[in-house]
Specification:
It is built from 13 helices and 5 strands. With 313 residues, it is of the alpha/beta class. The chain folds into 3 domains: 8-69; 73-126; 152-310, Nucleotidyltransferase, domain 5, CATH 3.30.420. Strand 1 and strand 2 (181-187) form a beta hairpin. The two termini are 27 Å apart.
Length: 313
């Protein structure tokens, strides 16, 4: 789970709702954060008299000040070098944690990038998306509600641990002028990719393509975003004898494997490409190129080879 930094005003809201007996899960829904944010906030910042907003704010600021003091200018220069190598903020966060035993969240790195842009810097130009992401805490979701969807919170823990092949992440890449799309599915363990060109993103067309792409491959679960193109998830689950789950709205990091792979696809199919000019051969070429490229995350094995060697484990 990701911890979202709370404002002083939201801490007053939490305090007020706790006073009238509202449960933590409901408080999280009301103020637009994950329930783990509320439980961690109360656990870390309550005092002898219980949870108090001013006290919680002081404790949080004190921790943040200590945390910032540990990150030197040299650390930020290392982070900036990795960003210039086209590492995503999430990849940089993971790299600096492993190589330098330093915790710098990807959200913090994003803030650093946008502050750099305000000062006239160019770090943002190395992002795959050069515009700010939509506020992840907003309560209203204009994309609609998908009936009978299963939340990622219900997904088995084994999927998170990448212990087996057959747990896929699904998404669509949209063509120029929203004409046409590419359905992408990536196996979380092997990073093996399947791609399919579709004329539109209707739920029937997308479901048909997913079912076709998964034919002959092991499928335990598929995790999608909240796009309405995945609304036919029950038919997908039934056809593939698998479970389909949905990430939280505007939480792309919950499908990080797929998001990263879509970024790799853009190396071959840039934005503003007219998908009506693409052929099945073009899609097959990109799919094969990425499936035969050695990947560091699987010890420089090829996804195609890795999948074949682990399909029964």
């Amino acid at each position: 789970m990701r911890y979202k930094q709370l404002t002083h005003n939201k801490r007053y809201q939490i305090y007020a709702y706790l006073r009238i007996g509202i449960k933590q899960t409901e408080i999280a829904r009301i103020i637009g954060v994950h329930k783990s944010t509320i439980s961690r906030e109360i656990r870390r910042n309550k005092g002898k008299r219980g949870y108090r907003p001013n006290q919680a704010q002081r404790k949080s600021e004190k921790r943040l000040k200590k945390r910032k003091a540990r990150i030197t200018r040299e650390n930020w220069e290392q982070i900036e070098r990795k960003l210039c190598e086209e590492y995503s903020p999430e990849q940089v966060s993971n790299w600096i944690r492993k190589d330098h035993d330093l915790k710098v969240s990807h959200e913090w790195i994003y803030q650093h990038i946008w502050q750099d842009r305000k000062r006239g810097g160019t770090l943002y130009q190395h992002l795959r998306r050069k515009k700010k992401y939509r506020n992840r805490g907003r309560k209203r979701d204009n994309r609609g509600i998908i009936p009978n969807r299963k939340s990622i919170e219900e997904r088995p823990l084994i999927v998170e641990k990448r212990k087996r092949v057959g747990d896929w992440e699904a998404d669509t890449i949209i063509g120029k002028g929203k004409k046409g799309a590419i359905v992408t599915l990536v196996d979380r363990k092997s990073r093996f990719l399947r791609m399919g060109l579709v004329p539109n993103r209707s739920k029937v067309v997308v479901a048909d393509m997913i079912i076709s792409l998964m034919d002959g491959f092991p499928v335990h679960t598929i995790t999608c975003d909240n796009g309405k193109e995945f609304a036919d998830h029950e038919r997908i689950a039934s056809s593939l004898n698998a479970d389909v789950y949905f990430a939280h709205p505007y939480s792309s990091w919950e499908r990080g494997t797929n998001e990263n792979t879509n970024g790799l696809i853009r190396q071959y199919i840039p934005k503003k490409t007219d998908f009506r000019e693409l052929s099945i051969s073009d899609i097959s070429f990109v799919e094969n190129r990425l499936n035969t490229r050695p990947r560091k995350c699987i010890s420089f094995d090829q996804p195609m080879v890795f999948l074949k060697n682990h399909c029964c484990t």
